[in-house]
Design goal:
alpha/beta; Rossmann fold; 5-stranded parallel sheet; 17 helices; 5 strands; 54% helix; 7% strand
Length: 376
């Protein structure tokens, strides 16, 4: 990962490069983000830049021995700590046991999430942690002499997942590491980090990606047309992972929108026969999709309520939803919006409790028929 590969975040890049060129580098830094904005790629690009033998004013060279080893994530002075799961049959409790999977995952997905990492290691329902045994590995690695780098770098991804015993044991290292040792932590929940550690690191807040930067990336890398890229960028709110998710689920959203339209039309016309046919159809799509559909309906009702305020920045609808809302939004107002959301949430709860889906959706359609008439 180079600075050029990080989407946007030019102000943070300039600050990091400036600190490196002035050799003003705090030994412990915390990169904090809400998720999907590039904190880990930024920290990794920064680490590469610091150890590059011929850095330019904007990025690492990419050709020196250090950069080539960073390409493989196999530099001897680069160490990673990250949440793992304990598999009883193998008794894996330290991160090095998962290092091959971790390196492969980072190369494949420089922007990633805990959910993606857990899926990669087939964690199932297991909880991922940084176990107490990791503290001994950290202390051992940081006690070794530096092989060849300007700085030995320890990455701790999601220190909020660190066992308290581990966090307390490495506290002294965070406060006073050995010479030319840097500790970079990347967090999504800084308030969950042990307070004594939080007070000993310099915090760098990585804000959501600027809409223009994210739009450009979606056009260049995802091959979206300009209008679709701007729409997804707005809906993603500066979160690249959310943007990727929106690209992947656009077909599902289109299906849900069509079902929502049909439900509203049937209820408005009070066409009981079509309500029953609709209920039978929705009963056949599976419970997980049924729950997703009802969650989608709740969101769309809220968006239509906000649409009436004529404030574009408050709306997070795609083009198809916005076109539908031009005529539908007047039917969602302060007289029925809470009833709408309550009924949809109740239907979602009943589906999760394995209530007969045909009955749930038919009853919902009848309730909508009453509520939609109260709008005017």
């Amino acid at each position: 990962m180079y600075f050029k590969d990080v989407i946007g975040q030019n102000d943070v890049k300039q600050r990091l490069i400036g600190a490196a060129r002035k050799e003003f580098i705090p030994h412990a830094q915390l990169f904090s983000e809400a998720g999907g904005t590039g904190a880990f790629p930024l920290a990794l690009a920064y680490s590469r830049y610091l150890n590059c033998k011929s850095p330019s004013e904007t990025d690492a060279c990419g050709n020196c021995p250090s950069c080539l080893k960073y390409d493989l994530l196999a530099h001897p002075d680069l160490h990673f700590v990250f949440p793992i799961i304990s598999r009883k049959e193998k008794k894996k409790l330290v991160c090095d046991d998962y290092l091959p999977e971790w390196r492969a995952y980072l190369k494949d997905k420089p922007y990633f999430s805990m959910a993606g990492w857990l899926e990669r290691i087939e964690a199932g329902n297991s909880q991922a942690l940084i176990y107490s045994a990791e503290s001994e590995e950290i202390m051992r690695k940081l006690s070794l002499r530096i092989y060849e780098a300007n700085y030995r770098v320890l990455f701790v991804w999601l220190p909020e997942k660190m066992h308290n015993d581990c966090a307390n044991k490495i506290l002294k290292l965070v406060e006073e590491p050995s010479p030319h040792t840097l500790i970079f932590m990347v967090t999504e929940e800084p308030e969950a980090i042990l307070g004594t550690i939080l007070s000993r690191v310099q915090r760098i807040n990585v804000r959501p990606i600027h809409s223009d930067d994210l739009t450009k990336n979606l056009i260049d890398k995802e091959c979206l047309d300009a209008e679709a890229a701007r729409e997804i960028s707005h809906l993603a709110g500066g979160n690249y992972l959310k943007a990727k998710e929106l690209i992947n689920i656009s077909e599902e959203n289109n299906f849900f929108l069509e079902q929502f339209k049909e439900m509203m039309r049937n209820s408005w016309k009070r066409n009981v026969k079509d309500m029953k046919t609709f209920s039978d159809k929705l009963a056949g799509i599976g419970r997980e999709r049924q729950k997703s559909f009802l969650a989608y309906c709740q969101r769309l009702v809220r968006e239509n309520f906000m649409y009436c305020f004529q404030a574009q920045e408050l709306n997070y609808m795609n083009r198809g939803e916005a076109e539908f809302s031009v005529k539908f939004a007047p039917f969602i107002n302060e007289r029925n919006v809470f009833s709408f959301v309550d009924e949809l949430a109740k239907a979602e709860y009943h589906i999760s409790q394995n209530v007969n889906a045909k009955m749930v959706f038919f009853d919902l359609a009848l309730q909508v028929a009453v509520m939609i008439k109260t709008a005017r």
